[in-house]
Write a structure and sequence with these properties.
DUF1989, 29% strand, UAAP2, 3 helices, mainly beta, seven-stranded antiparallel sheet, Urea carboxylase-associated protein 1
């Protein structure tokens, strides 16, 4: 399946934090900025050489993240290839997000936090029910966001793969078990990724309220796409 789109999209849920703006930086480089409300999805094409900065506006907010080649979405982010290439499960400055063809998609060029998750996965109605009880079935989840936003680009359930969780704190215990604990981010901290090719980014601004990944209170995040210098 392939998609070729040059527009970025956001979801406006009526939250006053939501906004889409086009601005110039002090250096004159154009930017596109979107504030993604709590619990909402977002997507955009980030072109080769452009950067995407994700800012945790209020602190302790997990940002679930999927990545595809913008022209051929059968080429997509691969957690095993990324972990293998860098020799570790956590992402930070210098980490290269690899595709299922073991080719680079994006590179983390700056990171205020120092550690991000590759193994915790995305919450779903099914996993919520299993972990927290059947009363959670009606709660919105990241898989719902990915499916709704992905459909705008011709993506379906079979196109969902293991995702990155920016800002989510998932320590690995000595016995190999995983924990989901309070985040290590803070208000205003950010990370920046450079596109190594034209990529389609899908985001779920995580709606989870049953564990501490969002401090039990999901909040807005800001997405800023900056054009490559000289373009």
């Amino acid at each position: 399946m392939s998609t070729n789109t040059g527009t970025n999209t956001g979801t406006d849920t009526g939250n006053t934090d939501t906004g889409n703006t086009d601005t110039d930086t002090a250096s004159g480089t154009p930017e596109r900025t979107t504030v993604v409300p709590a619990r909402a999805p977002w997507s955009a094409v980030v072109h080769t050489g452009e950067t995407l900065t994700i800012t945790d506006l209020h602190g302790n907010q997990a940002v679930d993240f999927l990545l595809y080649d913008a022209h051929d979405t059968s080429v997509r982010y691969s957690a095993p290839d990324t972990i293998h290439a860098q020799g570790g499960i956590f992402l930070t400055t210098g980490s290269v997000l690899m595709s299922n063809e073991h080719t680079p998609l994006m590179t983390v060029t700056a990171d205020d936090v120092g550690r991000h998750d590759t193994v915790g996965g995305a919450c779903s109605k099914e996993s919520n029910s299993l972990r927290y009880g059947h009363h959670t079935w009606s709660q919105h989840a990241c898989v719902d966001n990915f499916l709704a936003e992905g459909a705008k680009h011709g993506l379906g359930k079979r196109d969902l793969v293991s995702n990155i969780n920016w800002y989510m704190n998932v320590p690995v215990e000595k016995d190999g078990t995983l924990g989901i604990v309070d985040g290590i981010s803070a208000p205003g901290l950010s990370l920046t990724l450079r596109a190594e090719r034209d990529v389609l980014v899908l985001v779920s601004n995580c709606p989870q309220i049953n564990n501490p990944c969002n401090g039990f209170d999901p909040t807005a995040v800001r997405m800023t796409i900056t054009e490559a210098a000289g373009t």
